Amino acid sequence: MPNLVEINNVEKSYVKAGGNFSSSRVKVLKGVTFAIEEGLCVGLIGESGSGKSTLSRLILGLEKPDKGAVLIEGQPVPEWIKANQGKMSVVFQDYTSSVNPKYTIKETIAEPIRAMNYAGNLEDRIDALLAKVSLSPDLKDRYPHELSGGQVQRVCIARAISTNPRFIVLDEAISSLDVSVQTQVMNLLHQLRLEMKMTYLFVAHDLQAVAHLCNKIVFLYRGEVVEQLMSADLVNAQNEYAKSLLASVIPFDV
Ligand SMILES: Nc1ncnc2c1ncn2[C@@H]1O[C@H](COP(=O)(O)OP(=O)(O)OP(=O)(O)O)[C@@H](O)[C@H]1O
Fold first, then answer.
1. Probe residue for ligand 1, chosen from 10, 52, 171 as the CB with the greatest number of ligand atoms within 8 Å
2. Phi, psi (rounded to 5 degrees) for 76
3. Which residues' Cβ are closer than 6 Å to ligand 1?
4. CA dist., res. 4 & res. 1, Å (int)
5. DSSP string across 101-146
6. Is 0.90 exceeded by the ipTM?
7. What does the pLDDT look like over 164-179, one tens digit per residue?
8. Which ranges carry the ABC transporter domain (predicted)?
9. Is residue 106 in some structural domain?
10. Which atom of ligand 1 has the smallest separation from the CA of 57?
């Protein structure tokens, strides 16, 4: 499988709160290197503050690395985005703040479709997208606060796939959901990935979820990649942090 995304020796630091000198910068990513292969779900796991969201923002082109490069199909992210409108999407953890409370479900999903000057029938497109995420078209005219958390996250997924993306960054996308709903949404994401031949970066702090959904897992510890393994090879982890996480996971086939 060719690499869709390459993260090459990426460094990123921020000014420490309260400090204004270069010495008071905090290095969040310290030479991160890994690839996201086309068609795979790659999991990025790490404890709070390890730099996962920073890395997501660099991949989404929202920020630039200080050193190193993030390339998509060999191109720097901003260039790739310009040439591939709608082909990269994102789903965030906090679904309540990632939808506009004043927009109906229909308007929420329509926004990126309209931005791409869609020529087809918008109502039909929205109905088809709702069906894809197993939501009734009757929900179209409701507002986000009239839906459950799981339903709103499905709306966010419908919006994310509305432009037929090739690549989706799922940044803690299921972390705020109840465990039973998490499983349903994970299954939905898995099914959609295969059906639409998409590539995922699945960012999470919960190894169980990552191992369930992902083909490859990258362990980030204090801004460094300390281990990367295919899911089938997790038992071969060498790094102590990765091993400690693996030890805390309940065996899958008990
Ligand atoms: N814009 C910013 N300015 C200053 N510091 C920042 C900024 N963004 C992130 N940081 C710092 O960088 C470090 C890594 O943050 P990041 O959000 O990437 O971690 P994370 O692994 O996603 O954590 P979590 O799982 O808690 O979201 C933290 O110490 C954070 O305070």
1. 52
2. -60, 145
3. 14, 28, 46, 48-54, 205
4. 9
5. TTS-HHHHHHHHHHHTT--S-HHHHHHHHHHHTT--GGGGGS-GGG
6. yes
7. 999 999 998 888 888 8
8. 5-247
9. yes
10. 18
